[in-house]
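**Backbone geometry record:**
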Amino acid sequence: MLESIRTLWPYMRRYRWGLVRGMGSLVIKDVAGAAVPLLIGGAIDALTAGNRLGVVFRFALLLVGVSLIKGLFQFWMRVILIGISRDIEYDLRNDLFANLVSLSPDFYARQRTGDIMARATNDLNAVRMMLGPGIMYWTETSLTFILAILVMMIKDWRLAILAILPAPLVSVAVMLFGRAIHERFEAIQAMFSDISSRVQENLSGVRMIRAFVQEAPEMRRFEELNKKYISQNLRLVRISGIFQPLLEGLIGITFLVVLWAGGYQVMRHRISLGGFVMFNTYMGMLVWPMIALGWVVNLMQRGSASMARINQIMRERPTIAAPVSPVAVGEVHGAIGFSNVSVDYPSGRALDGVELEIPAGSTVAIVGHTGCGKSTLAALIPRLMDPTEGAVYLDGTDLRELDPAQLRRNIGFVPQETFLFSATVGENIAFGVDDATEEQIREAAELAGLSADIESFPHRYQTMVGERGITLSGGQKQRTAIARALLRNPRILILDDALSSVDTLTEEKILTGLGGVMRGRTVILISHRVSTVRQADRIVVLEKGCIVEQGTHAELVAAGGYYADLSQKQMLEEELEAI
């Protein structure tokens, strides 16, 4: 728990003056509350001593005044301290999200989306409860306990000792049960992450589930996870169910002892009736702190366990980051060089000793079998990953010497797997260009061969595309991604199999539109279609991570290698389709 507080201390420091005001209100409220039994005892003693009603009336007025003060500062205590816990939750959520978006793709390859979502929602809420109600009630109950015991010791130390007899037992119970609560809540949060991941995967892949008629098996799997989650919660409920009655039982026994011993003291005239009532009122005040102690310990342990899970993400650092003193990215010409580049994955080597020079302003196409390393080669250029061996250069500078953010501002990248946001078509095209005008968005859509489709949409550029662009066809999604890349007006354009979902007629139209755009830029085209790459300045053929052929379309056809075979097969397919 101390580790969690240390992590949160920078956030708490931002609101230190608010915390001082909140804690000040808490102290005034508790002092006012501690004065109430004294006034009640004084009023009873005044009555039993035969004083006039006016004296009692003055006590009543004082009691009302003190209660009003207590109520007012209790209100401000809650508003300030609970409000600060919400502010810290806001800051922590922003920092968590900022760290998540800065992390490299390899983090998301090993971390489940549902688990991340669970930490950003459920765990963050548990931390807020620890910071707000947890710390507030921890401080309040501790101060109330100290003030009540202090006055009781002054009034009658014998009775006070009897009143605090259960305190050591409570401390032992808190220590033992607190550890068990912490461990069981960690298990609950882990199960919640599993459930979140399962739901996220099922909702994302709902079409696949229906296509393979897997609704019933998936429901069974979810039910099994749900049962395990309920089982973990019941384990926590059982231990909480023992903890709370145990505390209340100790308190009840203490009350009986104090009533017996205090009554005996009154009968022997060793303590006044008002003093005895005051003593019992303080005992009543101690009931809430002792009962709340169990709830507060629960909150603190839950918050501590959740903060530990959040810290696991906050401690993550991007594997691809800017160097301490990055080389300034000036005017980018677009010359790209691969020097003895190799890339290893856990499953094997994707690229092996690649040597390739791409002149500035040229169009280079990459072709090859599935899994030959084409997409890996493309991902190295915007530095979405680093080579295991060798280096990639931009205009003669090693990419690892550049700030990745500055590098990527000069690159338009259309990945193989198109991703669209739950926004309008226009907003998806303008993603990454904050000051894009409507005219620029329309022009980019026209170049990508998408404008005619958009004009047929019910709200045109304001049409919502749904989650991941689910309302669009595969070809429309790809063309939206192309328009998004073109709108950035990049010096380097990478199209990673970006026309695979469109027909040959639409492909020809898009390539014609891109002809003027591609002129003067460095373009990397990755495709399985000869029709897409035949006009490239140079075509590079990859086989098992190595470059086996390169040249123009005519040169490679004449060479009679892999590219020539691919070209011949696709020509035959086109002829058969035309029949």
Remarks:
- The CA atoms of residues 322 and 403 lie 4 Å apart.
- DSSP finds 20 helices and ten strands in the chain.
- The chain has a mean pLDDT of 78.
